[in-house]
Design a protein that fits this description.
The protein is α+β, with helices and mostly antiparallel strands. The chain contains 6 helices and 4 strands. It has a 4-stranded mixed β-sheet with strand order 2-1-3-4. A hairpin with a 4-residue loop joins strand 3 and strand 4. The longest helix is centred in the first third of the chain and has 40 residues. It is globular. The relative contact order is 0.12.
Length: about 180
């Protein structure tokens, strides 16, 4: 029994340097991953990255548009348990950094299409009126929501179509203001 304890003790001692090296590598990666976003948040950007003004301008271009993820569908693991919220957040932040219109991503209530979940809906204004987007399937247009958003690709599709709608609305708004200023 004493021999077994010595062997286990020696194994633990041999593993400690390996654990220390792995922890140091993880810390280095984590710190470098934190520094870059902090630089962007502080407005310093980074090599090839936009400043915070570009990100804020992209968010402002989205105006009062929001993409809402059905919290009920996600809560009951509809569609195999996929949660599109994180993919939408990632896509939204990348779009904003690139200067594209980026609607705010938030949780929403039931959209009435539970059998097709998880669902995502583009809403506009303070009252959050549902918006039909060009490129939606017939059934999606009927529900005024992106249905069966069960993969990252489908979440990115929903975001892309919503972003196009936001950009078109912004362009119409800018055109109207130019016509008003010219008159």
């Amino acid at each position: 029994m004493a021999a077994t304890q010595r062997v286990n003790f020696r194994r633990r001692q041999a593993v400690r340097p390996l654990v220390a090296v792995m922890a140091a590598a993880a810390a280095a990666v984590t710190l470098s991953a934190i520094r870059l976003p902090l630089a962007v948040l502080r407005g310093r950007g980074g090599p090839g990255l936009p400043s915070s003004e570009v990100v804020e301008a992209a968010r402002a271009a989205a105006g009062s548009y929001k993409l809402r993820v059905c919290s009920q569908c996600v809560g009951r693991n509809a569609g195999g348990g996929y949660n599109p919220h994180s993919a939408l957040m990632t896509t939204s932040s990348m779009a904003a950094k690139a200067g594209w219109p980026s609607p705010k991503i938030e949780w929403g209530g039931c959209m009435g299409a539970c059998e097709y979940g998880p669902n995502v809906r583009l809403v506009e204004g303070e009252i959050a009126l549902p918006v039909v987007v060009e490129g939606m399937a017939e059934e999606e247009a009927e529900y005024k929501a992106f249905l069966n958003v069960r993969t990252d690709q489908l979440a990115e599709r929903a975001f892309g179509l919503a972003s196009r709608k936001v950009a078109a609305a912004k362009e119409e708004e800018d055109q109207e203001s130019r016509e008003t200023a010219a008159a």
